[in-house]
Each structure stands twice: as structure tokens, then as C-alpha cells.
Amino acid sequence: MISLYKTLEFDILREHLAGLAASHLGRERIHNIQPFTNLADVEKSLNQITEMRDLSDYDQPPPFDEIADIHHILEKARLVGSMLQPEEIADVLHFIIIIRRLTNYFRERQERIPVLGEITSRLVSLQSLEKTIDQCIDSVTFQIKSSASPELASIRKSIDRAQTSARKKMESLLKNYAEKGLLQENIIAVRNGRLVLVVKDEHKRKVKGLVHDQSATGASFFIEPLSVVEDNNRIRELEAEEAKEIERILRQLTNAIREEHTALAENLLLFGELDFIHAKARLSQVLNAFQPELDNNPIISLVHAQHPLLLLRMGEKNVVSLDITLGDKNHTLIISGPNAGGKTVALKTVGLLTLMTSCGLHIPAQPHSKVGLMRKIFADIGDQQSIENDLSTFSSHLQALKEIDEKADAQSLVLIDEIGAATDPEEGTALAIALLERLNKRKSLSIVTTHQSPLKAFAYQTEGVENASLEFDIESLRPTYRFRTGIPGSSYAFEIAQRMGLPVEVTDRARIMIGSHKNKLEGLILELEERVQQYTRLSREANIKETEYKGLLKLYTERNEALKRETNAIKRQAVQEAEAMLQESNAAIEQAIREIRESNAQKQQVKMARQNVARQKEKIKTIQEQIKTTPATPVQDEAIKKGDFVIWRISGARGQVMNHPDKKRRVTVQFDGGMKASVPASELEIDDTKRQPKTMVRLNVASDKHYSREVDLRGLLGEEAINVLDQFLDEALLAGFEYVHIIHGKGTGKLRKVVGNYLQKHAQVKEFRLGYWNEGDSGVTVVELKGKKKITNAIQE
After folding, report:
1. Contact 334/450 with Cβ under 8 angstroms?
2. Cα atoms found within 13 Å of the Cα of residue 230, Cβ hemisphere only
3. What pTM was computed for the model?
4. β-bridge partners, 685
5. How far is Cα 162 from Cα 160, in angstroms, rounded to an integer?
6. Does an H or E element contain 766, and which?
7. What Cα–Cα distance (Å) separates residue 494 from each residue in 399, 497, 498, 514, 518?
8. CA 358 to CA 369: how far, in whole Å?
9. DSSP code of 715?
10. pLDDT (tens digit, 9 = 90+) per residue, 35-71?
11. Helices (H), 636-746
């Protein structure tokens, strides 16, 4: 296991993890970390880390703090009659305070930590012991407080009074002798705990008292005047009483700690476990890692996986991620390509992330990544030659292959760098194929790297074996480090040699020497590489165009509806104005009628006036009928079926139904012009007319609609969410957005998985990731889109 840790550089990652722990107990557990042997333990560890990280990400972080190693202190306290020193008791006090804070912190959040709660609920807060110790010992100076006991307080007051009395006498004597010039220095010194004066050698007999010391030169004597001897004696007596009382207090505190030894020892173990989990959660934050899905079957499916050590050294933006799946259809992956192209890094990334999962650690990959429990991991990476053991490079390689052949099974991961190298190429290749055949039959998950063409052919011809490579920019002859499955890679030896300045004559001669078959195979790989890159570009451009056309159709429909609404609004305004005019006219006419009656006018004239008013009302009524919005007539969409030619009443577009109505009574229609759209069947009608030739329509659409950079899918079901997301991405592409945010919330993670699966298949999604802590974290997915063309001019459909 030590060799595996070193080969996959897990030992380096482990040291970084140890640096994140707050105690020696946490670091000790980290240094002893081992892969779990069953899936339940792995899942429990991953859940613990997830809960601890969620607390740090979305709440105040847990109050962990560095603690001293108090294990030996507790063992010392267990001995009856033992006495702990103030510094040791202060360390115990600090630990008790940390445990109290952690206990209160986790108790307030117990509903959010069901898995961690199994540990935190066992913590015991020793507040009584904490209060007792805190009353007696200053945790900063380690001095015994006067409040430790009434006796100690009384003794110290007596000492203060005796010292004050003695000092006053000494100050009087100091002034007297200083005026007489008897002193070497005008200070009150202390020797052997007693107050003394510094007297010149020639005047020592003039000062009556006890000589306690003299200077190194003999020029000064430290004399205790007789008048203060009694005071100094009293001080010494009191200090002895103080020391005795302090000892009694320390023994009393030691006894109190001994009584709580069981609870303290249990708290110490629990703190070590929590510190271990907290360090793993901090590493998850640093790596922006997530909890992968676990599988009972041996399978590895990594999405946007990154090497942890590269992340620590270079940062997330500078590390190219890889997507890799093994164990579903294929069990063996053969990676080929040029040197320094990233093959070994890809090998180590898969191995290290699998090992991290087995040890119950989060991995730097998307949360819908899936990892099965690998009971054995074999890694033959790098030069393992040994002068001490008399092993050449090839001999050590064979020794590793022998161990793999003997021990690898269906629950093993095998990683071999440059398989069959360091010997005759033909013989080494034959050995490699023979071993891979055996591993493939056992269904061991195997990933190997190679430069040998026969191994590429073996992968192409053998079921369960697949080629893979890392993309290489043919124009610049530089690696892009993008991982691709299904495509073998060329070594580009001759191309790189020419770029490095090797004469063309040498490379041409080398091409002739390797034979036409080899040249033809490498040529095919190069041609395949060029076509793949070309088709990728063309596909990207075509997808952008398709999205633009779909967007234009939506914009046209919206603009058409908006135009209708504006027209109706204008008509309504005109009617309102007409009604106002009519009311005025009607009032005038009625006034005229009253005047006519009052003036005894003819009945025929009155009748004609009323008829004129009626005609005006009829005109207004006709206008009102014209602007009324006719409600949509319900359509029996049961008649709509796959293959029908239909008309979409919303836009008048014609097309053919591609599938039967789903649960939401929606169908996919292939419209004339090649565009597809999902529409309600109730908005369609059967096209019984003769199909007309396609016509060219020019739309002048100004992109002045306000588009949002984020969509909120929370509360939507899977299919409903996808429909909303599909429309949102179309509009985002039309708006020219490069990055958009999809809010799906955290919850159970089901909606996040639905969104992730959809985005993986979307042609216009370049890449996506979960948000950082300041973007919404795992409740938000950040998407980078491929197309960035804002539509501002007319296009043809």
C-alpha cells in the first residue's frame, strides 16, 4: 500500500490533508488513512464530509481550534496521589472549553447533520469542571489565582502587607545610606528572596546586617539590614504557606480531573474523529470537490475530473478536466499519443480519484460522477529499476506485470504506463496484448498507455477494449490535454522532430525505414485527427446556425403576437375616442331634441335626428366587433399522431409530426426548413392542403428583447424543467451570452442530475460545472455556451 500511495502521489495529498487538521489526533488519523473494504463505510465517510462542508459553506464554521496533546496528562492524572502542574491543567481547561463550544454548536444544528450527529451527540460538556479550573488557574500566565481558595487569598494579603512594610523600611534606609555615599547603586535588590542594599566594599562594615552575596568584581556587597530581617523572615514564612496551599489546590484539581477521566478520554477520541472529518471537508473546499455516486458494480465514470495536486499547484482554471467511463461496455482502455501529451497524468488522475473514493474522500469531479468500490488497485507507473535489488527497468516492469496477472480480478483497477516498453517492441507488444486479453476476460478495469500501433489495432478489433487519446493540435504540434475515447493517438515523432530542428533528410529516411504499412497507419491516424477536428468545428458552427434559426422563429412568433396586441390597442383607443365623441354628439342631439320639443318642431324632424344617432352607434358597434380577440377553439389533439403533416396555428408554420404526444400532450414537429420544435398538440391542425414549394421569407428582427442570464427550475418536475431549460438556452444563445446560471437548488439532488444529464447531450453546451461558494454552490450549475453570435441583422429561413 505504501508503494501504491507513492506511485499515485497519494502520500503528497495526504500530507497536505494533515496540514489542515487542528490537532495531533486528527493528523494521526490522516497518516493512518486506509481504503475501506465495504461500500457502506465509504458512503458514511462521504456523507460526514458533505455535512461538515455544508456547515462551513452555508453557516458559521465549526469552532475547531488547536489543542495540546493531553493524552499523557490524563494518564498522569489517573495515578492516585499524582499532582498536575498549572500548565498541564491549563491545557486540560482549554480542551474542555473547545469541547463545550463544539457541543453547543452541533446541538443547535443537529437536524442538519444526521450522520455527523452519531458522533457529536456523544460529546460531554464538563462545565462544572471548567468552572472549577477557571476559578483557580490563569490560562494565560498559568498562575494560581487568589480566588482558588480563601486561605490562599488571605496568605497573599499578608504577604502584600509584609512586603509593603519591609519596602518602606528599605526605602528609608536607602535614602539615608545614599546621602552618606555608602551605596554602589541606589536601588533595592533581591537576593535569595530577601530585600537587600548594594553597598560599596569599603563601606560594608558601616551597614549593619547580613551579607547575602557580592558582585563578581568584589566591589559590591548585597547586605540585608538588621532592621528588616524580621520582616523578610515573615515574608519567607508566608511564601512557604502560599506554596503549601498552592500544592493542595493543584492536588485538588488533579483529583477533579481524575474523576472525569472517562468523559475526558471519550471527548478526546471524538474530537480526533471530528477533527479528521473537518480536515477532509476543508480539503473538499480547497479542491472544489464533491461526493461521487457509489456503485456496487466495478465501474468508473468520471465527469470533469481533475488531478488534485495539479489543482493545488496551478488552480482550477489552468487544469484541463477529463471525462472517462470504464466498466459499462468496455473494461480496458488503451491510451496512445505523443510524449508529454498528458497520458500519464490521465492515468494517475483516474487512479488517485478512485483511491480517494475508496478512502472516503470527496473527489474533484462533478457530483454525478460514479465510482464503484475497487478492492485492489495496481499501478505500474514510472521507472522502477533498482540497483540494490539488481532489477533493470524491464525486469521491474515484468515483476509488476506478474503480480497483476496473479492477483487482479473483476474488482480490481489496473494502471500500466508504457506497457511492454523497455524491450524489443514486437516482443513487448506481444506480451502486452497477451496480458490485456487475460485481464479483459476477467473484466478487470484496465487502463494502459502505449506508443505501439499493434496495441491500437488490438483495441479496435477486440470487444471490451477501446482506444483513447489526448487531443493534439496538428497545426501548432502542441498538446491540448483534452481526453477523447474511441480515437487512437499518433506519437507525432517525426513531426515533433522536425519542429525541434532535426534535418528533414533524417526524418524522411526514418519514414522509409519503418515501412509503408506503418506509414500508412500513422497517416490514417493523422487524417482521422484532422477530420475529427474539422468536423468538430463544422458541427459547432451548424449547431449555432440551427439555434439561431430556432430563435428567430420564436422571436418572429413573439413579434407577430406583439404586433397584433398593438393593433388591437390602437383600435381600442380609436373606439374609445369615437365613443367619447358620440357621447358628446348624443348629448348635443338630445339637447337639440329638447329644444325642438320646447319650440313645437315637427315630429318628422325629431325622428330623423334619432335615426342619425342610431346609425352612429351602429358604426361604433361594428368597430368593436372587429377588434374583439377571438378565443381559441379547443382542438381534439387525440387525432394528432406521428407522421401527420400539420400547421402550427401560432405561427402558420408547416411541418411533420415526429412522435406521438407525450404525457404533457406535446409533440416534436420537423418544420419546413429543417428546424425542430416541441409544441402542444392542441396548437396544431391537420394540413389537408397540397404541399407548396418552400419559399424564402426575410425577417428583420432587432434583438432588443431583454434576456436573463439565469433560470430558476426549482419546483419543476423533470420533463417540465427540461422544456423550460431548452427554451432558456435558445434565448441565451440568441442573446450572445457566454455563461448562464441554472438554479435547481440542492434538495435530494435529483433535479441537479436531470439538468446535468441534459447538458451533457446539448450540442451548444461547451462545458458546465457547479457554482462556487459565492455563486450558489451546488444549488446552481454554471454553463459555458459554444455559440456567441448576437442576432442584429436579417437572415433567411
Report:
1. yes
2. 3
3. 0.64
4. 647
5. 6
6. strand 765-770
7. 33, 5, 6, 11, 13
8. 14
9. T
10. 999 999 999 999 999 999 999 988 899 999 999 989 9
11. 718-735
